[in-house]
C-alpha cells in the first residue's frame, strides 16, 4: 500500500456540509461522548498527525480512515481558531453526559425553590464554560466581561424559573414541569450573547473560500450568535419537553408510586436518550462554517474586501457552537 496522498482536505469536515445529512453525520462524530475517555497522550498524538499532515508530512503507515479519525479527535478537544485545548466539560463531546445529568435534575427537582435556584445556577455555570470554550474567533474576553455574562445569565434564568413557578401554582402539575425549559430558553438568549460580547464589539474573522482572512465583522458575529441561540433552544426542546410528559404519566402508575426513588434516574435516562439525537441534529441546523454575502457586511469592511478582490461575493466565518 502506497503512502497517503497529501490532497485530502482535512480543513473541512469529512461529509458535505451543504446538506443537513452531511452536517448531522459530522456532528454525531463531534459530539460522541466516547471522546471524553481519550487520554492526553492520545489527543496529542492526533494533534501531531493532523498538524504534520497539514505541513505536508505523512505519518508512516497512516490510512485515510485513521487520518479522519485523528482529525475528529483533534477537533473534539482543541479550539478551531485559537488551537487551545478546551477544558473537559467545555468540549462538545461532554454535551450529552453533562446535559443529561443537569437537565434531568432540573426536571426532577422543580417543585422547591432552593432546588430550582441550585440547578439553574449549575446549568448556567456549565453553559458559561461551554459558550466560552466554543466561541468564534480568537479575540480574548476579559474576566470582567466573563463575570458580567455569567451573573446576568444566572440571574435571568433563576428569575424566569421562579417567576413562572409562582404563576403555575394553580395550574395542572404538568404545566409546572415545563418551567425549567422556559428558564433555559430565556437564559440562552442572555448567556450566549453576553458570553460572546467581545465578538459583538470587535467582530469575528471572515475569510474567502480558500480560508484567507479578510478582516473582522460584527455583522457576521450577530448572525452566528443568533444561529447558535436558535440551535441551543431547539436542542433543549426534546430533552425538556418529552420526558415531562412521559414522567407525568408514569408517576400516576403504581410501579413508580411504590418506587419513588426510581424517578430521578429514569428521568435522567430519558433526557440522555433525547440528547443523544437532539444534540448533533440541532448543531447541524446551520453550517459550522457559515457564509454571508459581502453586500451585508459593514461598509468599511465591504470596501476593504472590494479593494483586495472585487470578485469576492461571499465570505465565510466560524459561527461557533
Automatic annotation (TrEMBL):
<dbReference type="GO" id="GO:0005743">
    <property type="term" value="C:mitochondrial inner membrane"/>
</dbReference>
<dbReference type="InterPro" id="IPR004686">
    <property type="entry name" value="Mtc"/>
</dbReference>
<keyword id="KW-1133">Transmembrane helix</keyword>
<dbReference type="GO" id="GO:0015075">
    <property type="term" value="F:monoatomic ion transmembrane transporter activity"/>
</dbReference>
<dbReference type="GO" id="GO:0006730">
    <property type="term" value="P:one-carbon metabolic process"/>
</dbReference>
<keyword id="KW-0813">Transport</keyword>
<keyword id="KW-0029">Amino-acid transport</keyword>
<dbReference type="GO" id="GO:0140300">
    <property type="term" value="P:serine import into mitochondrion"/>
</dbReference>
<keyword id="KW-0472">Membrane</keyword>
<feature type="transmembrane region" description="Helical">
    <location>
        <begin position="266"/>
        <end position="286"/>
    </location>
</feature>
<protein>
    <recommendedName>
        <fullName>Sidoreflexin</fullName>
    </recommendedName>
</protein>
<keyword id="KW-0496">Mitochondrion</keyword>
<dbReference type="Pfam" id="PF03820">
    <property type="entry name" value="SFXNs"/>
</dbReference>
<keyword id="KW-0554">One-carbon metabolism</keyword>
<keyword id="KW-0812">Transmembrane</keyword>
<comment type="function">
    <text>Mitochondrial serine transporter that mediates transport of serine into mitochondria, an important step of the one-carbon metabolism pathway. Mitochondrial serine is converted to glycine and formate, which then exits to the cytosol where it is used to generate the charged folates that serve as one-carbon donors.</text>
</comment>
<comment type="similarity">
    <text>Belongs to the sideroflexin family.</text>
</comment>
